[in-house]
Amino acid sequence: MSQKLRILVPIKRVIDFAIKPRINKNNTGVETKGVKFSMNPFCDIALEESIRIKENNKDLVEKIHAASIGPTKAQDILRTALAKGADTTTLVDVGDQEVEPLNVAKILKKIVEKENSNLVILGKQAIDDDSNQTGQMLAGLLNWPQATYASKVQIEGDSVTVVREIDGGSDTLRAKLPMVISTDLRLNEPRYASLPNIMKAKKKPLEKIKASDLDVKIENRLETLKVEEPPQRKAGIKVDSVDELISKLKDIKAI
Ligand code: AMP
């Protein structure tokens, strides 16, 4: 008999993807003051996929639980998740503390246990630190099968088939629940939350806890030495003919 799905969707609050990040004065990271923050786009795709699984498979999904580890303000993205279709949420409030992927994975493992989740759908990477580690580490800690870079997910009973995007083609995997899936860009196009649902989500309760409530001690192992902008590109020149182009390329020994 197929089991009901209890899906965990971890979502991270990051600088909005449409904003060009600026490096801070001390070259230790990006400037976060006065900048718009949103849900990490790959997490939005993970949430959308969970909602579609729920909508397309009557009675299959018991619950979609969204969780975020971050500052109190990460409540905003959890409210957005509720407005889009998540059933419940947890904020693990860590204030302004940086939390490396291994610590995020340790916290998520505890949330999986607490929520009795049997499927985790999360982003392939957070666009702020581009780590691309959390899903893999979580699968390792849970000892669950994982499928990364999903571009298609199909669930039949306890069996999950995932098509993965790989260089120059696709790779189709099948595993039994419980499992971890990380989402790629082409899996789906996330919906916008409707205004009535945004209003309703404002009234829904949000669970707020600390990492210590889950018995996780956040111990970072990495030290950021320097964050730098890429070198400025030099202006190009215009040429009037192909001959001139060839001669210029010869001058700079490009041909
Ligand atoms: P990363 O390994 O940091 O590139 O992140 C990959 C995915 O892990 C993200 O798309 C999220 O789904 C999840 N994740 C990473 N950090 C957090 C966080 N602080 N809170 C919730 N989910 C996170």
Automatic annotation (TrEMBL):
Gene3D superfamilies: HUPs
Gene Ontology CC annotations of this record: mitochondrial matrix
Keywords: Electron transport, Mitochondrion, Transport
Transmembrane segments: none
Localization: Mitochondrion matrix
GO terms for MF: electron transfer activity
Organism, scientific name: Pichia sorbitophila (strain ATCC MYA-4447 / BCRC 22081 / CBS 7064 / NBRC 10061 / NRRL Y-12695)
Cofactor(s) required for function per UniProt: FAD; AMP
Subunit comment: Heterodimer of an alpha and a beta subunit.
Source superkingdom: Eukaryota
Principal localisation: mitochondrion
Keyword Electron transport recorded: yes
Family named by the database record: Belongs to the ETF beta-subunit/FixA family.
GO annotation terms (biological process): amino acid catabolic process; fatty acid beta-oxidation using acyl-CoA dehydrogenase
Function: The electron transfer flavoprotein serves as a specific electron acceptor for several dehydrogenases, including five acyl-CoA dehydrogenases, glutaryl-CoA and sarcosine dehydrogenase. It transfers the electrons to the main mitochondrial respiratory chain via ETF-ubiquinone oxidoreductase (ETF dehydrogenase).
Name this polypeptide is given: Probable electron transfer flavoprotein subunit beta
Cofactor annotation comment: Binds 1 FAD per dimer. Binds 1 AMP per subunit.
Domain Electron transfer flavoprotein alpha/beta-subunit N-terminal: from-to ranges: 27-218
